[in-house]
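protien #1 (seq + structre)
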Amino acid sequence: MEPLREDIHRALMHVYAAQGRINLALKQYDNCRDALQRELRLQPEPETRHLHDTLRARRTTSPRPASASEPPRAEAGGEPLRPYTHYVKSSGVSIAYQVTGDGPIDLIYVPGWVSNLDLAWASPRLLHVFQRLGSFCRLIRMDKHGTGLSDRNIGLPTMEERMEDMRAVLDAVGSKRTVVFGGSEGGPMCMLFAATYPERTAALVLNGTYARGRWSKDYPWARTAEQVEEDLATIERQWGEPADMGNAAPSLMNDTSEREWFAAYLRNSASPADAISLWRWGTEIDVRDILPVIHVPTLIVQTSGDRWVKREEGRYLATHIEGARYVELTGRDHVIWGENSDRLVDEIEVFVTNALQATPGERLLVSVLSLEISDPHSDSGADLIERHADEIRSQLLLAEGRQIRRSPSRMLAVFQRPTRSIQCAIAIRHRLRQSGLDVRSAVHTGECEERGDDFTGIAIELSSRLLDHARPGEIIASRTVRDLVVGSGLTFEDYGEMEASGMPGVLAFFSVSGAPSGAGG
């Protein structure tokens, strides 16, 4: 820490104050004052002195907590200023989460880009949003895989890994049916969760979020590749300085304390290199193909002048998610604690209260693996699936797959996670190749309906049709699968296109090579 940077001293004072550690906040002021006097023979700036005086007055009027083991509580209302941070393991990664509020509705908030659970409480504006949400729900918050208080420097996650991290948090707090609230880059992950686990999603709330992270001819509102590179250069150049709120929250551009807090928040949420990698990762997201599979009550809130996510992107979501309610607010701020924070919470409260009675959807988002085994040394027509049933069954079990149909040489299986379907195909190919057999596979992710022990739907048909394009030893996957496993370590190469009834345009597919990053991904 640079001892003469008053902005850093003030940010730390805010953090300590939010934790209820007023004495440490005042001690930080003393350190700042002494350093300035010793090195520059100057007194702290008026803003720093005012903060000190405010905190000193607060210390003399605030009651002591009943127990040192309890979280500090605000002067009014009894809500903890900073709750305890808990951890849950998800595929070996520690995920940090906090829980506040005691309303009858469970709501999990997934922020965009990077976050820090503890530093969030140091912003009075963000604190206000959390307290309002906690007035009508049990608010669950998490730092995503690779950010904030969760395990960091562990490589880029896939979106499905982050989705499973969220499920692990919900399991840890005993939330069986939850309102899932995603902002900005956290939105696509919440959409994937709602499509994959409709029975656990009471409602879906999206704010300032998108379906695709980069420009394309059929999605012309996202940032171009050139703009993304400019954004990354700006992040690298300005990291650590008082944050430029020009895009995130123009209404707060002249709020010095907010800019200093936001810079400290970002610095403590990720390293510069990780922040850049995660920003780039967020621009590679494409969940357009899963939007028609979302069948839970959905609220989409979009700010009309948002500089990061255009209003057309919010309208696109509303058009492609069945029955979605779309609310457009006047303003320019992207963050949830900006100029429309109270209006946003008002809309959420009304919507989720009504959504409590919603019935979980019966249609599911699954990844379908079609697989065919052949013996290049024999044309006997033997039942190869049955002969190697134990090997196939063991790999399905490891990947949490479920066989639904089979013939002597072909098999269909379904998975909740696309990476695991490909991982299973790779493992089966490897095991059976040792027996001199050829295996070709195809994977597609889409909507199916469960009927007893069977599944029906267009995803089954498309996976089977894709298999016809694969040569022995090949694994091919649809564009939908490729877009959902960004960051998995798999390599996808253009392979071809086919007409797909029930889907607009043609379905592009790719050959798959490599191995997922992390067993069980």
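ok now protien #2
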Amino acid sequence: MHACPNDCILYRKEYEDSTNCPTCGISRWKEGKDSILKEGVAAKVVWYFPPIPRFKRMFQSHETAKCLTWHAARKSIDGQMSHPADSPSWKLLDDKWPEFGNEPRNLRLALSSDGFNPHSSLSSRYSCWSVILVTYNLPPWLCMKRKFMMLTLLISGPKQPGNDIDVYLEPLIDDLKSLWDGIRGVYDAHNGEYFTLRAALMWTINDFPTYGNLSGCVVKGYKACPICGDDTPSHRLKNGHKICYIGHRKWLPINHPYRRQRAAFNGKPEYGIPPEPLTGEEVLHMVENGDRVCWKKKSIFFDLEYWKYLPVRHALDVMHIEKNVYDSIIGTLLEIPGKNKDGIAARLDLLNMGVKTDLQPEYGERRTHLPHGP
């Protein structure tokens, strides 16, 4: 599938026969070294692998078709959420659309996207993006196996699509709409019958920057918290030249001792209460009415009928968060060059904030000494 090099459109539907992008005017074809257009050779290509035929083939396997209804037979014994079937999103789909929930063969999906460098260390600036679907109907020991993780989109580089990723998601969203309406004549090998297959996308799973691209939420700057929004407690560090977020203690229990500590944090006690996350309907109302202080765009996922009702629409990949936090902590404790977050700028910023003033840098004739913490 051909795409505009500037991520404006896909050459499909009404643009299928176009030779120039109607938005930016750039040619559809690749320009050679002699500045001559190579007609028939696309300047940018995206590979789309439709999921519907693969869902049909899954039900044509007796064993796989049986596993796809595994969730209907399981019971939560301890009342804890041990599977997505115990989640509020799953239960909302069952309650709000009972005709969907009463059919255990209807699929519940998750979408994950991230960029990678296919050239390893040969080209560090090249970024290729993949979009993968996961089927939660399967047992936990199968749903994350490579066999059942469906690659649906492969977006060529060299640059990442960023906020324009919605352009590339259009064919997938069209298929998800068709799956929500129902695909007739799907054969179930386990029960030996034909049925109408439906599917719903429950949420996306990604790192924080990709979260901003998919949801349309601002993830940088002074209002980068998706929950706090306009009330994000941010502060720009004068020496570190970065923005820090210092209001995290409000999520602790109201009687937690950390709330009353001053010297260990920003020199102030914390008596605030955490804000309530915005619902999908509230987010949709904000972006449609021009209230976009914390929103960059209207996400294409809102084209799905059920999306605005889901309590959790985007989830963060814990692996990325754990790795980054671990690297920062270990790098600082072991004073690893390049990963140590403790330095003169950090100490001066603490001094400006009135925190740990006894750790301010000590300037000598030859070098600056950083006192060790307690």
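Residues 121 and 272 are 47 Å apart (CA to CA).
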